[in-house]
From TrEMBL:
Keywords: DNA-binding, Phosphoprotein, Transcription, Transcription regulation. Residues 2-122 form the Response regulatory domain. This is Response regulator transcription factor. It comes from the Bacteria. One of its GO terms (molecular function) is DNA binding. CDD domains: LuxR_C_like, REC_NarL-like.
Amino acid sequence: MRVVIAEDNALLREGMVLLLNSAGHEVVAVASSGPEVLPALLEHRPDAAVLDVRMPPGFRDEGLRAALAARREIPGLPVLVLSQYVEETYAAELLADGAGGLGYLLKDRVGRVEEFLDALERVVAGGTALDPEVVRELMTRRRNDPVDSLTPREREVLHLMAEGRDNTTIARTLVVSERAVSKHIGNVFAKLGLPPSDSGHRRVLAVLAYLNKGAGKGESADRGGGRR
């Protein structure tokens, strides 16, 4: 696949270039500041973009803004966003259009090569890839909402759905049948109040219902104007 990377940390940026090239992919452009991102994406129209959330000049949300702008200009562009910390407002905003082809990972995940490449491939295939640490923290923050009505097994299924896992992977991870997974997913949809749909995006809607319960109720303490 052809990839554009936007990351101001030179060491991490070059590391991702080497990693992707070694895996048989082509990095067609790199960007080291927010204003460089959208022009690079529009020029190269890659198969995927890997973007840091916070970039120069402001180190706030330049990468995220570029990702959202690129998705408007290039509908369906697969985007994998990287962040130093769990920032649920960013994750919710990124996923707010209810479409696939999006991921949100913590930067530590890049060092776990197989996991990083797997997440990128899922995003390129039109799925979602939400970092397990992001999912874990979001679940611990939820109080007094429909997620609380889920059984422990249903919460495990939702956790894996939020990461973007398919039914086969969920069944293998939990050591249950795919039929059981389908039943649990149906229960999750019902308890979260999601309407029946054949659109193929019900998993994304479940993730959004899950994220948006807390989004906007107070931003991450790290979200000020400071460096990552």
